[in-house]
Amino acid sequence: MNKAKIGFIGCGTHATNNLYPMLAYTRAELVAVCDLDEQLAHRNAALYGASSVYTDAGRMLDEQQLDGVIIVGPSTVHYSLGMQALTRGIAVFTEKPPAPRLAQAEEMVAVARAGGTFLMTGYMKRHGLPYKKARQLIDSGLFEPAVGHFKYGHWGNDNLNEMLLTMSSHIIDLAISFFGEPIGVTSTIYETGRTISLAAVLHFRSGQWAQLTLDSSQPRIQERVELSGSIDGDNALIVVDNVQQMELHRQGHHGIDLLKPELYEIEPTFDLADIQMWRPDYGIPNMGQTRHFVQGFAGELREFVDAIIERRQPYPGTDDVLKAMRVIDAIAARPNGYSDLQP
Q: N or C: which end of the chain has fewer CB within 10 A?
């Protein structure tokens, strides 16, 4: 298989601006587009080269010989249409969350496994370039993480479960991608009636932990990740700021003056060699400097299509779908206190 035949369900703003254009960077053949609004479906088919247009997703799944389907809409649609595709043995990519409730996501995972296919959720931050680089440093053994601090703020939401599913799931999944599946979560919530702020600590089997600060009172999305650890036995720190800048801090002099017998002999130290920084140069129009690559939209769709063609699980794959959902379910059930996540 040189190309994967893909159907796309949903022609809303997010899908049209951030996902359809990224198919050009994959080995996908967009063969069909579906939306309840036929005009939007015709528009996206014309824009992105699909030959067939549908307003009935079930009919599209029956009539087209699809290798995979991308579903972008409300979580209820992810679940209902995702189940229809999975029962037909078609690989599914849904935006997050894959379903409104954990039990429904578990159904989807069970059907995917039984049908020999896979379910991938759109946690695009795993594919953001700074986070991929941080993971490479960890996987290579150069950087050994110890503790993570994840801060994520966004616009108003007064429903805890909805806030966690629709926005904060990104940062919960990102923490899991660095430290593995959590075994417990401790959380504290503060509500104003219009907004929600949440502090949570994810506890991992390794003994590592990650602190999450989640806030729905921001005027815009704000994101900062700090991974404390070591390089060659010395303290080190990785900082990713709004997915736009990555810093690697190594142990150095850090401006500490060395003692001398006489004060006049002291020379102030100023060592910049311990700090490395990367940020995209948006003045250079190449793939690695574009928002869609930096933030991970292109990377996640590439991974989905490549996994179909190479007949393997994607990253994140079916086994990863439930991890963040279990954390969300536990916090929503007990927003103040500790919840054990072990089976």
A: C
